[in-house]
């Protein structure tokens, strides 16, 4: 992509009770966009603050008062290109280099500069992750696939930890909201990570359309979570003996839904094997429920993964498994932590979560 150099000069200006600045944009795209315009938009929805006509040679200029302390995006709608920026009271130049990341050459202490530095680092991590994931679909051996999944998960968690750090670094600004907003497609499918992101936003979250979208999405996901009394079940173990959840009343239970054909599940089995003695020492009973349809495939996986804890099965499979439906299992692996009173405490808890909860009971 051709370099895009945008000179953004923010000059003091007051308009009514709301603090605005005269925003001056000028530059040359180096090409003529299909729409013939460059848009200044709010991140959420299609709210367009202004449309800037672009000359045939790619040049443009624009000047108008806009509020400070807000995130905007410069949008080329037909080219599917968006360049975010955070409006502050200072002159700055925005450059779009070949790697697609805006580079700011101005005050290194500005919010925008620091945000771009965080974003540039995260994009590098994401490129490395994508390269590491390349070829995963071509791996046919389930054990090798499980090994790759484990490493992929570690790298993904590093990215998410870094992203949470960036949200905390800009808490109280629309920058933090924008980071969450841009990753809603991921957060909406993981309540644990979404909760951490909401907490990272801090206690002061500025009112904005993004804020509304984020918290409405979180409230919907929260309402869909399984809470309260854990659904009862009675299923056979490897020897055909029926085991009930009520048999473990008075103990913490880590309830794990998995399947032999699921590579992430197999990777989780290996990790859990290492942690099982510690969990057992903390008084946590581990129960796995297989969603396999083939009993021999299930038993083979149990042997291969050297699973030490209780294994149960419902051979009706993933789609027709009544226990999985009761626990709202949409994907595997899915894990629940159930307290001694039989109440669901957490979904997909971390080792730290379990240690803290179980420790507080002692």
UniProtKB/TrEMBL annotation:
InterPro entries listed in its UniProt record: AhpC/TSA, Thioredoxin-like_sf, Thioredoxin_CS, Thioredoxin_domain, Thioredoxin_ResA/DsbE_sf
Protein origin, superkingdom: Bacteria
Places the protein is found: Cell envelope
GO BP terms: cytochrome complex assembly
Pfam hit, one: AhpC-TSA
GO cellular component: cell envelope
Single GO molecular function: antioxidant activity
Record flagged with keyword Iron-sulfur: no
Disulfide bond is among the record's keywords: yes
Segments forming a coiled coil: none
Keyword set, alphabetical order: Cytochrome c-type biogenesis, Disulfide bond, Redox-active center
Identification of the protein by name: AhpC/TSA family protein
């Amino acid at each position: 992509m051709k370099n895009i150099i945008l000179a953004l000069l923010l000059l003091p200006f007051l308009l009514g009770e709301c603090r605005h600045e005269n925003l001056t944009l000028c530059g040359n795209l180096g090409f003529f966009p299909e729409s013939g315009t460059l848009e200044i938009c709010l991140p959420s929805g299609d709210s367009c603050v202004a449309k800037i006509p672009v000359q045939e040679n790619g040049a443009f200029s624009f000047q108008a008062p806009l509020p400070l302390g807000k995130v905007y995006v410069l949008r080329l709608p037909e080219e599917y290109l968006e360049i975010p920026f955070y409006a502050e009271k200072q002159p700055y130049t925005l450059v779009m280099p070949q790697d697609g990341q805006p580079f700011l050459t101005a005050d290194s202490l500005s919010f925008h500069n620091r945000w771009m530095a965080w974003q540039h680092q995260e994009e590098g991590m994401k490129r490395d992750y994508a390269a590491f994931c390349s070829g995963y679909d071509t791996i046919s051996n389930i054990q090798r696939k499980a090994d790759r999944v484990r490493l992929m998960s570690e790298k993904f968690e590093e990215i998410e930890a870094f992203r949470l750090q960036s949200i905390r670094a800009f808490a109280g600004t629309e920058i933090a909201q924008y980071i969450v907003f841009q990753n809603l497609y991921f957060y909406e499918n993981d309540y644990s990570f979404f909760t951490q992101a909401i907490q990272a936003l801090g206690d002061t979250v500025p009112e904005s359309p993004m804020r509304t979208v984020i918290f409405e999405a979180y409230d919907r996901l929260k309402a869909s979570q399984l809470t309260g009394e854990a659904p009862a079940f009675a299923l056979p173990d490897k020897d055909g003996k029926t085991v009930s959840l009520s048999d473990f009343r008075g103990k913490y239970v880590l309830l794990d839904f998995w399947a032999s054909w699921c590579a992430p599940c197999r990777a989780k089995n290996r990790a859990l094997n290492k942690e099982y003695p510690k969990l057992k020492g903390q008084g946590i009973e581990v129960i796995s429920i297989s969603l396999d349809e083939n009993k021999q495939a299930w038993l083979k996986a149990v042997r291969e993964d050297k699973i030490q804890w209780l294994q149960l099965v419902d051979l009706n499979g993933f789609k027709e498994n009544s226990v999985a439906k009761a626990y709202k299992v949409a994907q595997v692996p899915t894990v629940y932590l159930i307290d001694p009173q039989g109440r669901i405490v957490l979904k997909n808890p971390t080792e730290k979560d379990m240690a803290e909860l179980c420790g507080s009971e002692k």
